[in-house]
Design a protein that fits this description.
The chain is 3% helix and 38% strand. By secondary structure, the protein is mainly beta. Residues 1-28 are annotated as: Disordered.
Length: 117
Amino acid sequence: MSRIDGAPSARPRPSLIPGSSSGRSPDQRALAYPLPLVLDRSRAPRYRLVNVGDEELGWVRLRVDGPGVMPLSPPLRLDPGRSREVVVHSADPERNVRLQVSWRRPNGQSYLWSFVL
């Protein structure tokens, strides 16, 4: 890692590769957070987002990226096992449209999942 002037910095950046030296013992490394959502595409252009995790997801927001349109909806809470249906209209959603889902875990951490429809 280098500073703005091009000189190397005194402290190397820790590696994020599993099994590499990150300055933490294996017991201290955080495990990956499993994605708590599944997208059911079987009834396109109606898509169903399902919380398959074991915790409530708060401030769930949906956003279309690309040449698609969907009805505006306020942020919502998605309890385990619950789902939310969204309709996305586009001429070619499988090639041109991405849906972005953001949410907060009960501990306050924020996440973003982006995928092509």
